[in-house]
Design a protein that fits this description.
Pirin, mainly beta, seven-stranded antiparallel beta sheet, iron
Length: 331
């Protein structure tokens, strides 16, 4: 799991919690079921079974892989529409290409993030490049959907490319954990450390790596929701030491900071606990979802479908990126 790494002995340190600050309790732990997305690539549905009220302002997340594709197996998504939210693709291992009808696009690879605001409407595609379809290889990533409040549902589409070397790196006081801040920031003494992602809805998104036996307390904005999704490994969350493992989501209650700890023994070749930490200011508006549309009313969903069918969400550009198909041998 390359993402972005660093020697934790040289990084700025997180502050320890102050007297009187409250640790966030663990409200629930759920296990993501497996499914298929796009042209058939395997995903874990990270938020399955969790109420939108607990997820707010997030509405959906898939973990893609970790999967080691054989030659000819890598798959992506065809051209498809979005309206009413932001899509965030964080590529931990592997390479994806992106193109959209608003002129955004590029390559997402090891530790990079693309942040696409669909807003009023957009068409886009995400697909592995031809050489990786032919050769196969390791793929592991996250796609997160961040809701937009009603006032921003029809904002102009926007695309951000966040390279791996742009993320902000911090370490736990003992150097046993590495934090990569992709968007937003932390509370208290660490509030000056902010990631490069620019968002309509205030959120925090970071990837934490804990070495075996490592422990970290992360200051968290009291008004934000707080989620911890286990990308790989095993450990414990909260002061009660609730056990968690790969593919599980912990939802935290209110408080000033949250605690993560890695088991002394880790399964797998990497031997570390990998955690995606998410939180944001709740929007607290009614949500209606249908496929790639996230709106506030059923009428807005019907209008989104009609607008897509009539070409008002964008047009696939000339010489557009298309999924590469491996030719089948005859005979």
């Amino acid at each position: 799991m390359p993402a972005v790494t660093a020697d934790t002995t040289t990084l700025p340190r997180l502050a320890v919690p102050l007297p009187g600050q409250v640790e966030r309790p663990v409200r629930s732990v759920t296990t993501a079921p497996s499914g298929r997305e796009g042209e058939g690539f395997p995903v874990r549905r990270a938020f399955a079974g969790v109420s939108l009220a607990d997820l707010d302002p997030f509405v959906h997340m898939d973990q893609t892989g970790e999967v080691d594709y054989a030659p000819g197996e890598p798959k992506g998504t065809p051209w498809h529409p979005h309206r009413g939210f932001e899509t965030v693709t964080y590529m931990i291992d592997g390479t994806f290409q992106h193109q959209d009808s608003n002129g955004g696009g590029g390559v997402i690879t090891d530790g990079a993030t693309q942040w696409m605001t669909a807003g009023a409407g957009i068409l886009h595609i995400e697909t592995p490049p031809e050489q990786l379809v032919v050769s196969g290889g390791l793929f592991h990533g996250i796609q997160l959907w961040v809701n937009l409040p009603a006032r921003d549902k029809f904002s102009p589409p926007r695309y951000q490319s966040i390279e791996g070397d742009q993320v902000v790196l911090l370490a736990s006081p003992d150097g046993g954990a590495l934090l990569r801040i992709i968007a937003g920031g932390l509370a208290g003494d660490a509030a000056g450390h902010r990631g490069p992602g620019a968002t309509h809805t205030p959120i925090t998104m970071m990837h934490a790596t804990l070495f075996p036996g490592g422990r970290v307390t992360v200051p968290w904005e009291p008004g934000f929701s707080a989620l911890a999704y286990i990308l790989a490994g095993s450990g414990r969350v909260g002061d009660e030491g609730r056990p968690v493992r790969t593919g599980q989501l912990a939802v935290f209650g209110p408080g000033d900071y949250l605690t993560l700890a890695a088991d002394d023994q880790q399964a797998g070749t990497d031997g570390r606990l990998e955690v995606l930490l998410l939180g944001g200011r709740p929007i607290r508006e009614h949500v209606e979802m249908y496929g790639p549309f996230v709106m506030n009313t059923k009428e807005e969903l019907r209008q989104a479908v009609a607008d897509y069918q009539e070409g008002r969400l964008g047009v696939i550009p000339p010489n557009a990126l298309m999924p590469h198909r491996v030719a089948r041998r005859s005979g």
